[in-house]
């Protein structure tokens, strides 16, 4: 007697397709991995990726440990002006008051650090991301949440910091002077 050939059921075929799609997505997401390293860009990128592991209600200690801490050398020249030679994560912390009068802690972490090449001497930018805590529990990690809490837009200086005053002064000094 000949064995009867059978085809796999359609459910198994679709299951295998979904498994392949999920495996490809996982592989592609790892391709977005950070440039590793202990320099400013490596630490900033790893901090940005670590934010994806945050969960609402985490204790302050667990959330801070998830993002980690580091001190790195700034990627711009520091011998020509008053700019930071080192950058720390967490960068700083401040207390804000909500529109309802509640106190929240906002801890800023740097998630992007760059030396801007338009300036021949020094110029840089640091972009920050917040962790927002209420009663030592994580309640948010976006600037839009800070704006919602306070009832006003977040100031650009709170979200990022730019360096390059010395460079701007040099450009002003090089402009031709008018003689009367």
Task: Write a structural description.
The protein has 180 residues and is α+β, with helices and mostly antiparallel strands. The chain has a domain at 55-171. It contains six helices and seven strands, in the order αααββββββααβα. The strands form two sheets. Strands 3, 4, 5, 6 and 7 form a five-stranded antiparallel beta sheet that branches. The chain has a two-stranded antiparallel sheet with strand order 1-2. It is globular and about 45 Å long. It starts with 9 loop residues before the first helix and ends in a 6-residue tail after the last helix.
Question: In short, what is this structure?
Answer:
This protein is α+β, with helices and mostly antiparallel strands. It has helices at 10-31, 40-50, 60-67, 143-150, 156-159, 165-174, and strands at residues 70-73, 86-89, 92-97, 103-115, 124-134, 137-140, 160-163.
List keywords for this structure.
single chain, 180 residues, alpha+beta, two-stranded antiparallel ribbon, globular, disordered C terminus
Helix content: 25-40%
How many helices? The count is 6
Question: Strand-residue fraction?
Answer: 25-35%
Number of strands: 7
Mean pLDDT: 77
Summarize the helix and strand pattern as letters. Answer: HHHEEEEEEHHEH
Rg is: 25 Å
Q: Tell me, what's the shape? A: globular
Give me the secondary-structure category: alpha+beta
Q: Tell me about the largest β-sheet.
A: 5 strands, antiparallel
Task: Give the terminus-to-terminus CA distance.
Answer: 113 Å
User: pLDDT below 50 for ≥5 consecutive residues: which ranges?
Assistant: 26-31, 169-180
């Amino acid at each position: 007697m000949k064995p009867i050939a059978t085809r796999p059921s359609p459910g198994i075929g679709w299951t295998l397709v979904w498994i392949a799609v999920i495996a490809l997505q996982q592989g592609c997401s790892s391709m977005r991995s950070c440039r590793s390293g202990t320099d400013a860009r490596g630490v900033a990128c790893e901090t940005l990726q670590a934010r994806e592991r945050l969960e609402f209600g985490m204790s302050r200690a667990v959330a801070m440990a998830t993002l980690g801490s580091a001190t790195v050398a700034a990627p711009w020249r520091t011998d020509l002006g008053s700019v930071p030679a080192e950058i720390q994560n967490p960068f700083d912390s401040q207390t804000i008051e909500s529109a309802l009068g509640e106190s929240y802690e906002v801890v800023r972490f740097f998630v992007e650090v760059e030396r801007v090449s338009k300036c021949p001497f020094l110029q840089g930018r640091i972009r920050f991301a917040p962790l927002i805590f209420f009663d030592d529990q994580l309640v948010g990690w976006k600037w839009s949440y800070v704006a919602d809490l306070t009832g006003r837009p977040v100031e650009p200086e709170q979200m990022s910091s730019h360096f390059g005053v010395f460079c701007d002064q040099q450009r002003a000094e090089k402009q031709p002077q008018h003689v009367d």
